[in-house]
Design goal:
Layout (H helix, E strand, L loop, with lengths): L1 E5 L10 H15 L3 E7 L16 E6 L2 E2 L2 E2 L16 H15 L5 E5 L8 H11 L6 E5 L25 E5 L5 H8 L6 E3 L12 H7 L9 E8 L6 H15 L3 E8 L6 H15 L6 E3 L11 H10 L2 E4 L8 H8 L3 E5 L3 H10 L2 E3 L3 E2 L4 E2 L7 H18 L1 H11 L3 H14 L1
Helix pairs in contact: 2-3, 6-7, 6-11
Amino acid sequence: MKVSILTMFNGISPTYSLVNVVEEQLTMLLKAGHLVQLLVSEDCPDDDRYGVFLDSRIDWVKITNRLHGQIIHWKDYSQPLGTTHETFYEEADAIAQDYIRALADTQICFMHDIHYQGWHLVHNVAIRQAQEQLPHIKFLAFTHSVPVNRPLQTNWPFSARYSPMPRTLYIYPTQSGLPALARQYAVSEGRCRAVNNSLNGLMYVSEEVKALASCTDLIFSDFVIVYPGRLTPGKKFEKVAMLAGAIKKQSEKSVQLLFCDFPSMDIPSDSYKQLIVREGVRLGLASSDIVFTSDHGYPQGFPRQGVLELFQLSNLFICPSFSESFGLTVLEAASRGNFIVLNEAVPALEELGKQLHSYFMRWDARNFGFNSQENYHPSEEKYLEDHANKIITIMRASPSLYAKTTARQRYSPQWIWKHQLEPLLEE
């Protein structure tokens, strides 16, 4: 399917929110395998392009902004009544002819604020003229600002801002705005749809994190746990896996556990990894829930910046370490909004955790001058399950953790595409 996006951008700057919306829609459409065409003003500079706008699969079409060799200056016709400048209809005719040529082989056309903005009135009139010659196209008209009150009186062409166009669905970022949207364009609410703006948690992360996200479920997992450290039994990787397994079993939710590991002389890495996976699976994880970054191209450790970016996506940090002098990763995880679970028996973790109001559990530990060993009754498994239930309950009740997780999942481009935008293409 060929999809055209009509924006009439004069420039592409990420500080303009609509540019970000179009950027995400282009990414969604390309990932879904659609042919994509982007219609912009002929004055839009090529060197403005960045990110997905540089993708060679995008067919850029520059729509005329000239009449008789003179630049067309867009005028803001936001009032419902009045008169247009002398060359308005000639300009609309010239632009309409370009639209007809550009959209000849398109099946669906997205329009962004073309019907809403007063300075796009000439394009509004032009696309209506062009539509008469393009009966095969379905239009999706996106409005990105609060709908305006429909005036009691209006005249053509100003009435184009308040009139429906055939074969067109009207789109707004929220469900609550649909009644007002329907009133502005004088359509039934049945012709209006909500498509939320998306938040791409991977937009501004490093290529290393993007590559890792392509083979793990960092976006939709309910519990994302990141644990960086040297792959030594002293860091108790298997205890992290066991508690993660108990959380998955007790919550019946999805878990993604990422170990940002690097080798140790204490134990062969492969044998320790097998132990970690075995213990995690025994307590409730699937082997696919556990990822070692050393198995994904980073045998000597994941980049530090990448670890910090992963903490932005994760929501749970578990540190059952046998010994710590301070615990900097605890601060890093906490600073990025993770729920923190620490080994209370380690003095440094207890001290830091109290400052951070962390959740405490007890594992074997090295204290000052002696080692401690925990005994669990009736079993370690029951101990982990009891604490897993408490952790789940606290995390569910935390507004900030709920918001962080929901923003990552529910407002991701993947969710918006699957549940809101793609169905409109198939209607």
